[in-house]
Structures are given as C-alpha cells and as structure tokens.
Design goal:
alpha+beta, two-stranded antiparallel sheet, elongated, 7 strands, five-stranded antiparallel sheet
C-alpha cells in the first residue's frame, strides 16, 4: 500500500524579526530627535563696529531699522557736539575741501554765549553703529532707549574723499585727528537681532 502521508512544511515566522527591526529604527530616530533638541542654538553674529552712509544702507545690511535709526541719532548728537568748528566757511573748506562744509546752528542754550548764531563744520557723511549700541539692543530686546550720543560716532570725508572718524585728543596738549575707516560691506545675520529687520513691528 502506497504511503500517502506527507510532512507539513515548517512555517517561518517573520513578524517578530520585522517588529524588532522597526523598534530599533524607531529608537534610532528618537535618538536623533533628542540629539537635535539638545544641540545648542546657533551663536549670534560677532559684534563689530559697523559704518554706513545712510539708515537704509544699514537696514539693507541686515540690522533692524530701529537699531539703525538709533545709531544715526546717536551719531547726529555726537556730530553737533564734537564736529570740528570754524568761524568762516572758507577756513572750514581750507581744511576739508571745497563744498564739503555746512552751517551748523548751535543749540538754543549755546547761542547766548556764542559770538555768532552759526558755525561751520564738515559735512556728516555717515555714521557708526557701535558695538556698545548693538549689545545694548540685544540685551534689551530692542525696547530700550538708545539715544545716547556715546553709542554712535559721525563719519566725515576728508579732502580726498576718504571716510574718516575723528578720535578725541588723548591729552589736553594733543589735537583731535581724523582716522581713515572702512565703511561696512558685509551683511549680518538677522537672527542675531531677533530674526527681523523691522524693530517697529516686532519690538526687536
């Protein structure tokens, strides 16, 4: 009599192996997520003095508009206080060049003690957004008063057209002298100042 019995094929079970692979993959993905969360945020751009010709040029470089306006305002106040002053336009132009001087009207409190209502000074050709001003802006979130003249410096152009700043005299016997400076040519990361160039709308 023929043997009609047959052995049943052994069933392979894949499910446990597949589940284990998926579980290991999930752990790996979760580990990557934790690593990303634990990584430190990117550092803000290094603070350096920045010099611009106009406020719009400053904003286009990536600085918040409120910070640019504050830098200009501080430089303007500094300019009125410290710009080289001459009694005549001719004497100003002899040192700074033809057509490079303007009339500056003193503050009301200064007019009474001045021999003339006006003095002549070299033109304001730009302004500096100082490191101190940038740091103050970051620490205060853009919501601090920034009008102090010590936070900005005026930029002039000498007879040859070179941008210069005037360093204060080191002693009473020395004279303030112009120092050539480079105008800003690179952009900054907007995220370093709150991620926006608009200080009015975002407060920073």
């Amino acid at each position: 009599m023929a043997d009609t019995s047959f052995s049943r094929p052994t069933r392979r079970r894949f499910a446990p192996h597949v589940r284990a692979s998926l579980a290991l993959g999930s752990i790996a993905v979760a580990g990557l997520g934790l690593t990303a969360c634990d990584s430190p945020p990117p550092s803000p751009p290094q603070i350096q003095d920045a010099r611009f010709t106009t406020v719009s040029e400053c904003v286009n470089a990536g600085f918040p508009d409120r910070l640019c306006e504050a830098g200009y305002s501080a430089a303007w106040q500094n300019y009125k206080e410290t710009a080289p002053k001459f009694t005549t336009n001719q004497s100003c132009e002899e040192e700074w060049g033809t057509g490079k001087c303007v009339t500056l009207t003193p503050e009301p409190a200064q007019v009474a003690s001045a021999s003339s209502g006006s003095v002549f000074v070299p033109m304001l050709a730009g302004f500096m957004v100082s490191q101190a001003l940038q740091q103050r802006y970051r620490e205060g979130g853009g919501g601090v008063y920034l009008g102090n003249s010590g936070y900005g410096a005026p930029i002039y152009r000498d007879r040859s057209g070179t941008p210069v700043q005037i360093d204060p005299p080191s002693t009473a016997d020395t004279k303030a002298t112009p120092r050539p400076v480079n105008m800003n040519t690179t952009s900054v990361a907007r995220s370093g100042f709150g991620g926006s160039s608009s200080g009015r709308s975002s407060g920073g």
